[in-house]
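Handout, section 4.2: multi-component inputs.
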Amino acid sequence: KNTANAHDEL
Amino acid sequence: MNIFRILGDLSHLTSIIILLHTINTNKSTTGISLKTQILYVIVFITRYLDLFTKFISVYNTLMKIFFIISSVYIVYLIQYKYSQKHMVKQDLDNFKVEYLLAGSLLASLIFNYKFTPLEILWSFSLWLESVAILPQLMMLTRTGEADMLTTNYIFCLGLYRAFYIPNWFYRYFAEGHFDKLAVFTGLIQTLLYSDFFYIYYKNVIQARSSKLP
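Output:
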């Protein structure tokens, strides 16, 4: 799955 | 969230708390690069614009708000409360940040996941963060000495970046998550910190121990 655009890191 | 990510975030938090605590205890901002701190304000504001568009978690939101507010507060302390204007040392903070800003902007226009304002600004913040410490490092190199504050502060920041690397490995294998922009810019940043610690070790620690009888 592609979660690269999630930007869920700080 | 894995342990590396949590340790990384905690190190980041610790670095800011060390900085704030020391400024307020010593009532002085000597040795801290105003330029680096202003760059961090720009980094956090441009990266966390998604506070308005997307909710990830309470943790995520609180951390973002803390990073924005604390960075603005630190700039306020340097600029107004414990102003360095009358001090000679501020002249040492003469790194040309225009190049960092222009370079980051250019890189974000070329490398982004989508050509939209939010995505470009997000990418811009990553590139800028990767080099934002440079004025601070240059300042240290010029003075030739680092006091405990700046050393501890930069050490915690370096630790934060170092923990993010195993975090990415973990996420790649456990979640199939791989953010190539965050990883690439993060590695640049970690290299800058490791270079600093190498030089610091060579110049300060080794020199100090060789002076001992």
